[in-house]
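Students often ask why inverse folding is considered easier than folding. One informal answer: many sequences map to the same fold, so there is more than one right answer. In these notes we will look at a single instance of the problem. The structure comes first.
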C-alpha cells in the first residue's frame, strides 16, 4: 500500500503539464534519485575494443530505494493485470510515476527473472522493461524520454539479464 506522502507526490507528478517545468518538479519531488558516482565507475572500468565501458568487478549494491520500490511495483503490476478498467488506468498512472525512479529498471529485471512470480506478471515486466530500455537507456536515442538510466542501474541490469537465458519457460526467455 502507498503511504500518504507517496500519494501526494504521485498526485503532484500527474498534475504537471509543462515538460520542462515537469522535469524540474520531478527532480525536486524525487530527491532520492541519485547521480552515478563517476569517479568510482572510472576507477573500476576499462574500455573494450569498441570503446564501450566495461567494469572489472561488480559494483556495490547501493540502490537503497529498491527495497521500497518492490512492494509498490508488485501492487501496480497486480492492478495492471486486473479485469477492472478503472484499476488498470490508475495503475498505468502509478507506473508512469515509478518510471522516474533510479531503481525502476532494476526492479523490473528482478521481477522478470523471479521464479516465484506468476507467468503473466513476469511477461508484463519483461514487456515494461523492454519499453523502459527503449525510451530511457540512452539520451541519443530517437525515442528518448528523460530521465536517462544511471550507469549503476545499467550495470546491474546488464549483469542480471544473462540469467534469463537459463529460463526454462520460453515465453519469459524470449520476452
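Output (designed amino acids):
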Amino acid at each position: 500500500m502507498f503511504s500518504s506522502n507517496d500519494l501526494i507526490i504521485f498526485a503532484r507528478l500527474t498534475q504537471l503539464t509543462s515538460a520542462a517545468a515537469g522535469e524540474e518538479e520531478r527532480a525536486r519531488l524525487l530527491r532520492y534519485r541519485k547521480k552515478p558516482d563517476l569517479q568510482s565507475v572510472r576507477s573500476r572500468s576499462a574500455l573494450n575494443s569498441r570503446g564501450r565501458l566495461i567494469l572489472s568487478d561488480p559494483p556495490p549494491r547501493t540502490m537503497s530505494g529498491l527495497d521500497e520500490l518492490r512492494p509498490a511495483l508488485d501492487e501496480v503490476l497486480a492492478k495492471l493485470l486486473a479485469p477492472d478498467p478503472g484499476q488498470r488506468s490508475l495503475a498505468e498512472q502509478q507506473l508512469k510515476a515509478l518510471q522516474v525512479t533510479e531503481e525502476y529498471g532494476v526492479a523490473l529485471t528482478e521481477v522478470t527473472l523471479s521464479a516465484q512470480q506468476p507467468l503473466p506478471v513476469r511477461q508484463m515486466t519483461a514487456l515494461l522493461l523492454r519499453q523502459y530500455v527503449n525510451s530511457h537507456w540512452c539520451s541519443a536515442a530517437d525515442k528518448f524520454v528523460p530521465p536517462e538510466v544511471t550507469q549503476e542501474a545499467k550495470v546491474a541490469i546488464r549483469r542480471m539479464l544473462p540469467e534469463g537465458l537459463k529460463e526454462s519457460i520460453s515465453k519469459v526467455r524470449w520476452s
